[in-house]
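Fold it.
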Amino acid sequence: MSEERKWQRTEAQWRSALTPEQYYVCREHGTERPFSGEFNDCKSLGMYHCICCQATLFDAQHKFDSGSGWPSFWKPAEEAQVKEHHDTSLGMARTEVRCGRCEAHLGHVFPDGPQPTGQRYCINSVALKFEPAE
């Protein structure tokens, strides 16, 4: 079975695998309240993975304090693991980011981050699982 098909699940399967908040954010494209996520102030080194499928998404070395209330990164760990989609919800044009493996909603990317990329990947903590560096 291909890796892509492996992560296609029914709504019932996702609901049973995730907490209600994880389901709301990752499968219904919701957003957690700013400054409420467990990784907003996390300064530990390690890797951030998708809570739904464990794909490697972000390296803590690329994390920065954006003051936005959500964990922010200036680039993904692997470009192929984070996919961008045009989002016009809430009456504005934004770029949504999703997991490249399971399509979980992660957050949005904005062009106001630090160099060298100038990007700010603003990610919901609830969409992430952190693996500390050894």
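DSSP finds three helices and nine strands in the chain.
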